[in-house]
Design goal:
169 residues; alpha+beta; 35% helix; binds flavin mononucleotide; 4 strands
Length: 169
């Protein structure tokens, strides 16, 4: 799939089938994370791969907005270092690259940011200097996502020309 088509078709997936994801695809998703650029190439991030059912369940319990992750085939906890002012930009870039890599392989994914921080730190032994910024759950979609469409504002409402508020070229 070309990059634009991947972006244009990708939807968040929160219901997953029980079909296993191959280790090749899992590795490719992690490789996409590794290859993503960080601010000043600091590579301050670390990733925890969560595959065991018990731990996916814990992850769901550590969340306020991602209980669906219990049904994922695997999840990735993205840890970033808040001493860098741009760490959440890095988190956003890497999560998107992982999601698009997965989508290109027919694998769905969803993310959540509602995190019970103390609980997740305890459950996954996260060190104090790193922040659990986002969690992404991966799995094959439970059904074809034919009914679902993106709900987005049109370009003319989003883009201004030369100055804020100027909608005409
Ligand atoms: C910064 C950010 C935070 C998000 N947090 C959550 C979340 O906590 N739980 C969740 O289920 N989805 C979360 N999402 C997913 C959004 O709900 C999703 O991107 C949006 O509804 C568009 O979905 P679509 O691409 O399928 O249309 C988050 C997305 C972003 C970009």
């Amino acid at each position: 799939m070309d990059a634009f088509k991947c972006i244009a078709t990708k939807l968040e997936v929160r219901e997953f089938s029980t079909q296993d994801i191959s280790s090749e695809i899992r590795s490719k998703i992690l490789e996409a994370a590794r290859l993503t650029g960080t601010g000043m190439n600091t590579q301050h991030w670390r990733f925890i791969l969560v595959e065991k059912k018990d731990n996916l369940k814990k992850l769901a319990e550590d969340s306020t907005s991602g209980s669906w992750v219990a049904g994922a085939n695997f999840a990735v906890i993205v840890l970033t270092n808040p001493k860098y002012g741009f760490h959440l930009i890095d988190a956003g870039r890497v999560l998107q690259n992982m999601q698009l890599t997965a989508w290109n392989e027919g694998v769905g994914s969803g993310l959540f940011t509602g995190i019970r921080e103390e609980k997740i730190r305890n459950d996954f032994q996260i060190p104090n200097e790193l922040t659990p910024s986002v969690i992404i759950g991966f799995g094959y979609p439970v059904s074809k996502l034919t009914g679902k469409k993106k709900n987005r504002l049109p370009v003319y409402e989003l883009v201004y020309y030369e100055k804020y508020g100027n909608s005409k070229r």
